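Observation: inputs received (chain + 6-O-phosphono-beta-D-fructofuranose).
Thought: call the complex predictor directly.
Action: predict_structure
Action Input:
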Amino acid sequence: MNAALYAIAKVAEINGVKVSGIRRGYEGMIDGDFTSLESQQLQKTVFRGGTILKTSRSDRFLTVKGRSTALEMLQKSNIDSLIAIGGDGTFRGLLAFSELCKLPFIGIPGTIDNDLAGTDYTLGFDSAVNTAIQDIDKIRDTAESHNRIFLIEVMGRDSGYIAINSGIGTGADAILTPESGEDFVRLLDKIRHYDSEEAFIVVVSEGDEIGTELVASKIKEVNPKVDLRITKLGHVQRGGNPSAFDRMLGIRLGVASVKALLSGEKDVMAGILNNELTLTPFQQIIKQHRINEEMNELLKMFGS
Ligand code: F6P
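Observation:
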């Protein structure tokens, strides 16, 4: 996200446009918490995770009163267009806001979940998968030394993208995701014949409908002698220096969003489809970016 901010400030400056950053997302918009953004100050943040503007989940922005106050604050500061970086919650917020605020909005997909239509990749997803892969590789050392079963839970909300990519990328023995269907039954069959003489890694998406704890107890039921541990990777997946891919994605989407505004676009999200920059209307992106056919096939081949 910091790379995207840097790119936005840079292109805006080249075109003689002033940029204000809104601190703490929609919460900060309601409070009028604006700060001027300059590319020189942002240049040295490209390698940092998170966002220097900070973020929040805003209950007040869910209300008409909150959104009206936000509009007043934008008007008071002469802000005449808006670029928002975020996931489906951010875009739902923008859609609701567009009912009373007629300023042009451009979106940038920013979530580790990779669950938005209109882009092949969302900002942060690649870095999160790289973090998960490194952590799973490390956990494997203990799993192999002790011949243990590890259930490793990864984030992604309702999307299995992180689980599929990190599971296949680490040679996991099974992958459970909201999309994996029959894989749990096949996993239990494997566990029935598991002889405790090797490591066994299961990557579980937090959105899996059975849930990590229940998976663990079912495994124990079918094979009570297993030595099993659960590790939840949690928020480590959202931090750390962004990958090379994410830094460039941030730059590309930042540039694309300012260019879109300058050419009169509104209510569209900048994305990358087949490595081409694209603009997709907000209504179309909130329907989820589901696992595609190829990914589904990989999940079937490698997931159980
Ligand atoms: O949507 C991004 C995400 O990291 C999900 O993968 C995860 O379920 C959620 O946010 C965690 O949210 P919070 O930081 O509010 O606990």
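Thought: report the result.
Final Answer: The first helix runs from residue 2 to 14. The first strand starts at residue 20 and ends at 22.
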